[in-house]
Amino acid sequence: MLIRSPKSWEIPTSAVTSASLYHDRPRRDFLRTLGLGLAGAALLRPSALLAATAGFPAKGNPLYPGSALKPTPEEYVTGYNNFYEFGTDKGDPKELANQGWKTDPWTIELAGLVRSPAKFDVNELVKKIGGIEERVYRHRCVEAWSMVIPWDGFALAKLVALADPKPEAKFLKLTSFNDPKSSIGQRDHNLNYPYVEGLRLDEATNELAFLATGVYGKPLPNQNGAPIRLVTPWKYGFKGIKSIVRIEFTATQPTNTWNIMAPSEYGFYANVNPTVDHPRWSQASERIIGGGIFSGRQATLMFNGYDKQVAGLYKGLDLAKNY
Amino acid sequence: MAFFEKLLRSKIFVWTLLVLPGLWPLWPIFVVPDPSVGADPLKFILHHFGFVACVLLAVVLTFTPLRVLWPKSKLAQALNRHRRLVGVGAFAYALLHLIAYLLGNGLSTLVHDAYVVPKPFILAGLTAFTILLVLAITSLHALVRWIGGRRWKNLHRLAYLAAALAAYHQIYARKLFPVQVLWIFGPLALLEIARIVRQRANAAARPKAAAAG
After folding, report:
1. Three-class SS of residue A217?
2. Which of A14, A297, B70, B116 pairs with A135 at a CA distance of 20 to 30 A?
């Protein structure tokens, strides 16, 4: 539990222009009545469907097929979201991230200890990387619920290769967008913004680490972290930073947002581990999203079932201390 | 005002107010399906029943300070007719909350979080529930008489402890501070402070009044 007292320079929510006014609904309605009809509506519709369109439809990666796992219904994947920039209730982001927040065009920057620092338009980046693929991954939230999600995107290792890290680079620091005008959470300062996450370089080049630009065969909806987000299926969901604008390669371990907020509850590693409890709840089992009222719980697997791929990364590391 | 007072005195009216919130989850689950609820309907039900239990507990505890602060108010008097009903209502929702928890998490998770690796917020919730259970049972007429007025009153002061534990339980169940806790328990805290100030003032005034008489 955290109590944040607002800083003197913070503006109360009540003083903020409502999103609907800000995004000039009258103009949109005016254009509609002018008879621009569909053309006008298409020009002015929220940009969600335009985010990172390159590469679709993606080819399935046979190593991570949907046949092995039963994907969670799409309406829950896109309607039950933790994206505190757009509210703390699970239903908030679907509504509040689609009131004019622009995710197209979108630039992502590679910086820090790399030989090829660069800025890319996200669609150009996808083309440069060589397109996208589909992988069906388990998703385990630190709040002890889980989904199965078909992501579209590319291996983070490809981006690391593109950046060409210098030998002294040991970590990746990933930063999300900062736009308080579009983000009610950033106006309320419910977390330290912009949201920051980090990975060890060897974690980032692990075959599982993935940058998603889509879900369910379509460009990412805003509420799922459009246009590009991290997916690390062996870690708790909060590691999967959304709407990335910058990836910096560093020599020292970056401090991630939830670790700043509550260091005793959320660590740097955040590996899914049924034997290490959250201080306030058990991580031994999880609720299955979309399972209905009587679904009960299923046992949580070590590294969320991906121990074959990642266990080697943590040999000799005390996972109870490095949670 | 007379109509409102009559309404507040009516048992049927209060029963309706107590039962309706229990039916609310049917709306986002069945009537107008909301995917953020349908994703894990039991969690929604769990939080909702816990929320209603907290609200009812906070509400029933305001009845006494309201009567102390406004002794002549007909509304305060009307409300105080329903102390037992609303209090037992709070217990009923706490019971539904616990049943929803057990349905979703199983007894093994409860044992794990309360005993194997104890979690303070789970223990706080269980203690609050146990208090409400004892208070609900001892609200049977026969038991009230058997225990006796003063002892019964002292026992039922545990309701304040239950409210404090429920507030703690609600706060620590979340990743960030839930502002609703302030809306639920804030007015009660203010009324209690006002009541204590008033009772002190009354007690100080009494000997003087006796001396003057």
Report:
1. coil
2. A297
The verdict on residue A154 lying in a domain is yes
Task: Please tell me if residue A190 touches chain B, with a CB cutoff of 8 Å.
Answer: yes
CA proximity to A74, closest of A177, A225, A218, A286: A218
Under a CB-based contact definition with an 8 Å cutoff, are residues B104 and B43 in contact? yes
Residue A153 inside a domain? The answer is yes
Q: How do residues B44-101 score in pLDDT, each as one tens digit? A: 999 999 999 999 999 999 999 999 999 999 999 999 999 999 999 999 999 999 999 9
Pairing of strands A210-215, A218-219: antiparallel
Considering only the beta carbons, identify the residue of A2, A75, A291 that sits closest to B35: A75
B-chain residues near A292 (CB < 8 A):
41
Is A131 within the bounds of a domain? Answer: yes
B208 half-sphere exposure, CB direction, 13 A CA radius: 5
Residue of higher predicted confidence among B107 and A241: A241
CA–CA distance, B3 with A27 (Å, rounded to integer): 48
Number of domains in chain A: 1
pLDDT in tens, A255-299: 999 999 999 999 999 999 999 999 999 999 999 999 988 887 899
In a domain, A20, yes or no: no
B113 in contact with A at a CB cutoff of 8 Å? yes
- B103, B112, B175, B182, best to mutate vs chain A, most A CBs in 10 Å: B175
Q: What is the pLDDT of residue A2?
A: 65
- Asked if B99 has any chain A CB less than 8 Å from its own CB, the reply is no
- Cβ-contact B36, A90 below 8 angstroms: yes
Tens of pLDDT, residue by residue over A64-107, are 998 889 999 999 999 999 999 999 999 999 999 999 999 999 99
For B144-200, the pLDDT digits (tens) are 888 888 899 999 999 999 999 999 999 998 889 999 999 999 999 999 999 999 999
Cβ neighbours of A71 in B, within 8 Å: none
For B103-108, the CB contacts below 8 A with 24+ separation are: B103/A293, B103/A294, B103/B42, B104/A287, B104/A296, B104/A297, B104/B42, B104/B43, B104/B46, B105/A285, B105/A297, B106/A296, B106/A297
With the C-alpha atoms ordered B3, B5, B8, B9, is the resulting torsion angle positive or negative?
A: negative
**A317 or A68: which leads in pLDDT:** A317
Token digits for B81?
């007719």
Check A289 against B35: CB less than 8 A apart: no
**Other Cβ atoms within 10 Å of A130 Cβ, number:** 10
Beta carbons of A289 and B36 less than 8 Å apart: no
Residue A24 confidence (pLDDT): 45
Assess B175–A contact: CB distance below 8 Å, yes or no: yes
Any idea which of A2-11, A106-115, A251-260, B91-100 has the lowest mean pLDDT? A2-11
Name which of A97, A94, A98, A122 is nearest A110 in CA terms. Answer: A122
Say whether A290 and B39 touch across the interface (CB within 8 A). Answer: yes
